[in-house]
Prior knowledge:
With 256 residues, the protein is α/β, with parallel strands linked by helices. 46% of the residues lie in helices and 14% in strands. It has helices spanning 3-15, 29-40, 44-50, 88-97, 113-116, 119-129, 162-174, 180-193, 198-210, 217-237, and strands at residues 19-24, 51-56, 69-71, 79-82, 134-136, 146-150, 156-161, 245-248. The strands form 3 sheets. It has a 3-stranded mixed β-sheet, with helices on one face. Strands 6-7-8 form a 3-stranded mixed β-sheet. Strand 6 and strand 7 (156-161) form a beta hairpin. Helix 4 crosses helix 7, helix 7 (162-174) packs across helix 10 and helix 8 packs across helix 10. It is elongated.
Amino acid sequence: PAAYVVDEARLAPQLGFRLALQVPASTSTAQLATQLTQWTGLSVAELDRVVDLVPGRTWAGVWGEDNKILTTGAGTDIEVLVPADISSRSLQLAQAFTASEGYHAFSYGFQGAVDDRNEPQAAVDMARSSGRPAIRTRSYLVGGNVLPVTTPDGKPYAMVGRDSTVISAFHLDERNAFSNDAIMTRFNEMRAAGTMTVELANSTAAKLRQAGLRAGQTEGIIFAVKLDLTRDIIASDLNLPREAFVEVTQPEFHID
Length: 256
Protein backbone atom coordinates (compact mmCIF):
# COMPACT_ATOMS: atom_id res chain seq x y z
CA PRO A 1 0.00 0.00 0.00
CA ALA A 2 1.03 3.63 -0.47
CA ALA A 3 2.84 5.24 2.47
CA TYR A 4 -0.11 7.49 3.26
CA VAL A 5 -2.37 4.42 3.58
CA VAL A 6 -0.03 3.09 6.26
CA ASP A 7 -0.16 6.51 7.97
CA GLU A 8 -3.96 6.46 7.87
CA ALA A 9 -4.01 3.03 9.49
CA ARG A 10 -1.57 4.22 12.16
CA LEU A 11 -3.69 7.30 12.94
CA ALA A 12 -7.08 5.58 12.72
CA PRO A 13 -7.31 4.67 16.44
CA GLN A 14 -6.63 8.29 17.43
CA LEU A 15 -9.04 9.77 14.87
CA GLY A 16 -11.80 7.26 15.49
CA PHE A 17 -12.42 6.01 11.94
CA ARG A 18 -12.19 2.70 10.12
CA LEU A 19 -10.05 2.31 7.01
CA ALA A 20 -11.29 0.04 4.20
CA LEU A 21 -8.39 -1.17 2.05
CA GLN A 22 -9.26 -3.12 -1.08
CA VAL A 23 -6.64 -5.69 -2.11
CA PRO A 24 -6.40 -8.00 -5.14
CA ALA A 25 -7.76 -11.48 -4.60
CA SER A 26 -4.30 -12.84 -5.39
CA THR A 27 -2.86 -11.07 -2.33
CA SER A 28 -2.81 -12.88 1.01
CA THR A 29 -4.79 -10.71 3.41
CA ALA A 30 -3.28 -12.58 6.36
CA GLN A 31 0.24 -11.80 5.17
CA LEU A 32 -0.69 -8.19 4.46
CA ALA A 33 -2.22 -7.86 7.94
CA THR A 34 1.02 -9.11 9.46
CA GLN A 35 3.02 -6.59 7.43
CA LEU A 36 0.64 -3.78 8.43
CA THR A 37 1.25 -4.53 12.11
CA GLN A 38 4.97 -4.20 11.46
CA TRP A 39 4.62 -0.99 9.43
CA THR A 40 2.11 0.72 11.72
CA GLY A 41 3.19 -0.51 15.13
CA LEU A 42 -0.40 -1.57 15.88
CA SER A 43 -1.19 -4.90 17.46
CA VAL A 44 -3.26 -7.46 15.58
CA ALA A 45 -6.25 -6.63 17.78
CA GLU A 46 -5.85 -2.87 17.21
CA LEU A 47 -5.47 -3.37 13.48
CA ASP A 48 -8.59 -5.53 13.35
CA ARG A 49 -10.60 -2.75 15.02
CA VAL A 50 -9.63 -0.05 12.54
CA VAL A 51 -8.79 -1.71 9.20
CA ASP A 52 -11.04 -3.75 6.90
CA LEU A 53 -9.18 -5.70 4.21
CA VAL A 54 -11.69 -6.37 1.43
CA PRO A 55 -10.92 -8.51 -1.64
CA GLY A 56 -11.30 -7.10 -5.14
CA ARG A 57 -9.78 -7.33 -8.60
CA THR A 58 -7.38 -4.45 -8.09
CA TRP A 59 -5.77 -2.31 -5.43
CA ALA A 60 -8.11 0.55 -4.50
CA GLY A 61 -6.60 3.14 -2.26
CA VAL A 62 -4.07 5.13 -4.22
CA TRP A 63 -6.74 6.91 -6.28
CA GLY A 64 -9.73 6.15 -4.11
CA GLU A 65 -10.64 9.85 -4.03
CA ASP A 66 -10.58 10.08 -7.83
CA ASN A 67 -12.14 6.91 -9.16
CA LYS A 68 -15.66 7.50 -7.88
CA ILE A 69 -18.06 9.99 -6.35
CA LEU A 70 -20.09 9.14 -3.27
CA THR A 71 -23.58 10.56 -3.14
CA THR A 72 -26.46 10.33 -0.71
CA GLY A 73 -29.62 12.16 0.28
CA ALA A 74 -32.01 12.34 3.18
CA GLY A 75 -32.98 8.81 4.14
CA THR A 76 -31.05 7.20 1.28
CA ASP A 77 -28.06 4.89 1.29
CA ILE A 78 -24.68 5.93 -0.06
CA GLU A 79 -24.38 5.34 -3.81
CA VAL A 80 -21.11 5.01 -5.69
CA LEU A 81 -21.08 6.98 -8.95
CA VAL A 82 -18.66 5.34 -11.38
CA PRO A 83 -17.44 7.44 -14.35
CA ALA A 84 -18.40 6.55 -17.92
CA ASP A 85 -16.02 4.37 -19.88
CA ILE A 86 -14.55 6.79 -22.42
CA SER A 87 -12.74 5.96 -25.64
CA SER A 88 -9.26 7.12 -26.53
CA ARG A 89 -10.78 8.99 -29.48
CA SER A 90 -13.09 11.03 -27.22
CA LEU A 91 -10.16 11.87 -24.99
CA GLN A 92 -7.93 12.91 -27.91
CA LEU A 93 -10.66 15.07 -29.44
CA ALA A 94 -11.30 16.79 -26.11
CA GLN A 95 -7.63 17.50 -25.58
CA ALA A 96 -7.21 18.95 -29.07
CA PHE A 97 -10.49 20.92 -28.82
CA THR A 98 -9.29 22.72 -25.69
CA ALA A 99 -5.62 23.13 -26.67
CA SER A 100 -5.97 26.85 -27.42
CA GLU A 101 -7.93 27.71 -24.27
CA GLY A 102 -4.80 27.88 -22.16
CA TYR A 103 -6.08 26.78 -18.77
CA HIS A 104 -6.49 23.02 -18.99
CA ALA A 105 -4.56 20.33 -17.18
CA PHE A 106 -2.43 18.36 -19.61
CA SER A 107 -0.65 16.39 -16.92
CA TYR A 108 -1.88 12.93 -15.96
CA GLY A 109 -3.00 12.22 -19.52
CA PHE A 110 -5.32 15.25 -19.57
CA GLN A 111 -8.37 13.94 -17.68
CA GLY A 112 -8.39 10.32 -18.78
CA ALA A 113 -5.98 8.77 -16.31
CA VAL A 114 -8.76 7.39 -14.11
CA ASP A 115 -10.09 5.54 -17.14
CA ASP A 116 -6.59 4.52 -18.33
CA ARG A 117 -5.74 2.90 -15.00
CA ASN A 118 -8.94 0.83 -14.84
CA GLU A 119 -9.91 2.78 -11.74
CA PRO A 120 -13.67 2.55 -12.52
CA GLN A 121 -13.43 -1.21 -12.02
CA ALA A 122 -11.77 -0.60 -8.67
CA ALA A 123 -14.68 1.65 -7.73
CA VAL A 124 -17.19 -1.02 -8.75
CA ASP A 125 -15.31 -3.65 -6.75
CA MET A 126 -15.23 -1.40 -3.69
CA ALA A 127 -18.97 -0.74 -3.97
CA ARG A 128 -19.70 -4.44 -4.29
CA SER A 129 -17.51 -5.44 -1.37
CA SER A 130 -19.08 -2.79 0.87
CA GLY A 131 -22.64 -3.59 -0.19
CA ARG A 132 -23.23 -0.20 -1.84
CA PRO A 133 -24.95 0.29 -5.20
CA ALA A 134 -22.60 1.25 -8.06
CA ILE A 135 -24.15 3.51 -10.69
CA ARG A 136 -22.36 4.16 -13.98
CA THR A 137 -22.79 7.80 -14.95
CA ARG A 138 -23.51 8.84 -18.54
CA SER A 139 -20.86 11.56 -18.29
CA TYR A 140 -17.19 11.34 -17.35
CA LEU A 141 -17.06 12.54 -13.75
CA VAL A 142 -14.23 11.70 -11.37
CA GLY A 143 -13.43 12.87 -7.88
CA GLY A 144 -10.69 15.20 -9.07
CA ASN A 145 -12.93 17.32 -11.27
CA VAL A 146 -16.11 17.50 -9.21
CA LEU A 147 -16.32 19.58 -6.03
CA PRO A 148 -19.60 19.20 -4.10
CA VAL A 149 -20.49 22.29 -2.11
CA THR A 150 -23.50 23.87 -0.43
CA THR A 151 -24.99 27.35 -0.44
CA PRO A 152 -25.28 29.33 2.83
CA ASP A 153 -28.85 28.07 3.19
CA GLY A 154 -27.75 24.45 2.83
CA LYS A 155 -28.75 23.73 -0.78
CA PRO A 156 -26.36 21.42 -2.68
CA TYR A 157 -24.59 22.35 -5.87
CA ALA A 158 -21.51 21.12 -7.67
CA MET A 159 -18.50 22.77 -9.25
CA VAL A 160 -17.36 20.72 -12.23
CA GLY A 161 -14.20 21.21 -14.26
CA ARG A 162 -14.73 22.23 -17.88
CA ASP A 163 -12.53 19.33 -18.93
CA SER A 164 -15.29 16.98 -17.79
CA THR A 165 -17.88 18.81 -19.88
CA VAL A 166 -15.80 18.66 -23.04
CA ILE A 167 -14.76 15.01 -22.66
CA SER A 168 -18.33 14.04 -21.80
CA ALA A 169 -19.70 15.88 -24.83
CA PHE A 170 -17.44 13.98 -27.23
CA HIS A 171 -18.17 10.73 -25.38
CA LEU A 172 -21.95 11.26 -25.52
CA ASP A 173 -21.76 12.32 -29.17
CA GLU A 174 -19.88 9.10 -29.94
CA ARG A 175 -22.74 7.22 -28.27
CA ASN A 176 -25.36 9.12 -30.33
CA ALA A 177 -26.89 10.50 -27.16
CA PHE A 178 -28.18 13.72 -28.73
CA SER A 179 -31.36 13.45 -30.79
CA ASN A 180 -32.11 15.92 -33.57
CA ASP A 181 -35.22 17.04 -31.72
CA ALA A 182 -33.25 17.73 -28.54
CA ILE A 183 -30.63 19.67 -30.51
CA MET A 184 -33.23 21.79 -32.30
CA THR A 185 -35.17 22.48 -29.10
CA ARG A 186 -32.08 23.56 -27.20
CA PHE A 187 -30.87 25.67 -30.13
CA ASN A 188 -34.13 27.59 -30.13
CA GLU A 189 -33.92 28.02 -26.35
CA MET A 190 -30.35 29.30 -26.53
CA ARG A 191 -31.17 31.67 -29.37
CA ALA A 192 -34.18 33.04 -27.48
CA ALA A 193 -32.03 33.52 -24.37
CA GLY A 194 -29.30 35.25 -26.36
CA THR A 195 -26.66 32.67 -25.48
CA MET A 196 -26.33 31.32 -29.02
CA THR A 197 -24.19 33.94 -30.71
CA VAL A 198 -22.23 34.10 -33.93
CA GLU A 199 -19.07 34.40 -31.86
CA LEU A 200 -19.86 31.19 -29.95
CA ALA A 201 -20.65 29.30 -33.16
CA ASN A 202 -17.48 30.45 -34.90
CA SER A 203 -15.17 29.85 -31.92
CA THR A 204 -16.63 26.37 -31.41
CA ALA A 205 -16.17 25.57 -35.10
CA ALA A 206 -12.55 26.73 -34.90
CA LYS A 207 -11.90 24.41 -31.98
CA LEU A 208 -13.49 21.51 -33.84
CA ARG A 209 -11.16 22.17 -36.78
CA GLN A 210 -8.30 22.34 -34.29
CA ALA A 211 -9.31 18.81 -33.25
CA GLY A 212 -9.04 17.67 -36.87
CA LEU A 213 -12.76 17.74 -37.66
CA ARG A 214 -14.34 19.47 -40.63
CA ALA A 215 -16.51 22.24 -39.26
CA GLY A 216 -18.14 25.44 -40.40
CA GLN A 217 -20.53 27.70 -38.55
CA THR A 218 -23.37 25.15 -38.68
CA GLU A 219 -21.22 22.44 -37.09
CA GLY A 220 -20.07 24.99 -34.51
CA ILE A 221 -23.67 25.74 -33.59
CA ILE A 222 -24.54 22.06 -33.28
CA PHE A 223 -21.59 21.21 -31.05
CA ALA A 224 -22.16 24.29 -28.87
CA VAL A 225 -25.69 22.97 -28.35
CA LYS A 226 -24.34 19.50 -27.54
CA LEU A 227 -22.02 21.02 -24.94
CA ASP A 228 -25.02 22.70 -23.33
CA LEU A 229 -27.05 19.49 -23.37
CA THR A 230 -24.07 17.74 -21.80
CA ARG A 231 -24.32 20.10 -18.84
CA ASP A 232 -27.90 18.89 -18.35
CA ILE A 233 -26.70 15.29 -18.32
CA ILE A 234 -23.90 16.02 -15.85
CA ALA A 235 -26.38 17.73 -13.51
CA SER A 236 -28.70 14.73 -13.85
CA ASP A 237 -25.85 12.30 -13.10
CA LEU A 238 -25.21 14.24 -9.90
CA ASN A 239 -28.93 14.32 -9.09
CA LEU A 240 -28.93 18.11 -9.15
CA PRO A 241 -31.04 20.69 -10.98
CA ARG A 242 -29.25 22.33 -13.88
CA GLU A 243 -28.98 25.65 -12.05
CA ALA A 244 -26.99 23.87 -9.32
CA PHE A 245 -24.28 22.91 -11.84
CA VAL A 246 -21.38 25.38 -12.02
CA GLU A 247 -18.68 24.88 -14.65
CA VAL A 248 -15.21 26.14 -13.76
CA THR A 249 -11.86 26.25 -15.51
CA GLN A 250 -9.42 23.54 -14.53
CA PRO A 251 -5.74 24.48 -14.58
CA GLU A 252 -4.84 21.35 -12.59
CA PHE A 253 -6.18 17.83 -12.33
CA HIS A 254 -7.93 18.58 -9.01
CA ILE A 255 -10.17 21.64 -8.99
CA ASP A 256 -9.94 21.69 -5.19
